[in-house]
Amino acid sequence: MSTDDRADRAASFDRAAAVYQATRPSYPEDAVRWSVPREARDVLDLAAGTGKLTERLVALGWHVVAVEPSDGMRAELTAALPEVEAFPGTAEHLPLADASVDAVTIAQAWHWVDPPAASAEIARVLRPGGQVAPIWNVRDQEVDWVARWTEIVHRGDTLETSYRDPELGDRFTEPEHATFRWTQRLRTADLRTLAASRSHLILLPPDERDALLDDIDELVATHPDLRGSEWTEVPYRTECYRARLR
Ligand SMILES: C[S@@+](CC[C@H](N)C(=O)[O-])C[C@H]1O[C@@H](n2cnc3c(N)ncnc32)[C@H](O)[C@@H]1O
After folding, report:
1. Could you tell me which residue ranges the Methyltransferase type domain spans (predicted)?
2. Closest CA to 219 of 180, 188, 243, 194
3. Which atom number of ligand 1 is nearest to the Cα of residue 20?
């Protein structure tokens, strides 16, 4: 299977839900508070995955529903957050009533959606004046080992899947943007598992995937900032956008 196909890549997470849940980062509180209006009551976490952002939204006191197309990812979410209603569905076909939520978050996933169809659906389910917030965690490439790790996990990858200005269309106000810097504490050995949770690696033939993971092991064993350390700090920027329904 070609790993260049966007739909296959978007669906790939179903095969790696456990490694995703084990190693992918959460989201810092200040970024989540910036992204969701304080006065909101009902929040949709769209493309919720295993519930990394959902968990933060629940902890901050909002009533949260989740929509996620992958059965495997949704099963992890429900196991971790049994109190959250989690529906199968996509950004382009939301299984929610018109004007039923005050805010929509979509973390690490706007690059997988069809922007016009997703914007129209989000506008439909938002109440008047509601807010949408596309969010991404981006590793800080200025740190040498991070740049090397990233080079390995994107080797041979021709699909652009990083964050970008989200095109939200005419139904929304011009998006505001904010950046939040933080670090994720991770066992150094889990840098291999984190690599295995990337959609490019999930879909590679096993021998090619193993070759890239071997290169990650080599990096961990030899880089002066990683060698011999049980724990490492992965530096992230959380890039947040927010826009109101007109
Ligand atoms: C990188 S994960 C992000 C999961 C979660 N939001 C997080 O921050 O950890 C991307 C998620 O988008 C989902 N996804 C892919 N295409 C989608 C679509 N068209 N609509 C909604 N979700 C989609 C995938 O199943 C996957 O769970």
Report:
1. 44-132
2. 188
3. 9
Q: For residue 4, what pLDDT is reported?
A: 59
Contact (Cβ atoms closer than 8 angstroms) between residue 166 and residue 134? yes
Looking at domain 6-137+160-185+236-244, its CATH superfamily turns out to be Vaccinia Virus protein VP39 (3.40.50.150)
| CA-proximal residue: ligand 1, atom 10 (nearest) | 109
> How far is the centre of ligand 1, averaged over its atoms, from the C-alpha of 108 (Å)?
7
Residue 2 has pLDDT above 80, yes or no: no
Mean pLDDT taken over the chain: 94
Q: How far is the CA of 48 from the centre of ligand 1 (A)?
A: 6
Domain positions in the chain: 6-137+160-185+236-244
Interval between CA 107 and ligand 1 midpoint (Å) = 8
The rounded distance, in Å, linking the Cα atoms of 48 and 69 is 9
Q: pLDDT confidence of 68, banded at 50, 70, 90?
A: very high
pLDDT category at 10 given cuts 50, 70, 90 is confident
Probe ligand 1: pick from 112, 136, 162, max atoms within 8 Å of CB?
112
Residue with tokens 């508070």: 33
Q: Could you give the strand order of the β-sheet that contains 231-244, starting from the edge strand earlier in sequence?
A: 85-87, 63-67, 42-46, 101-107, 126-139, 231-244, 176-187
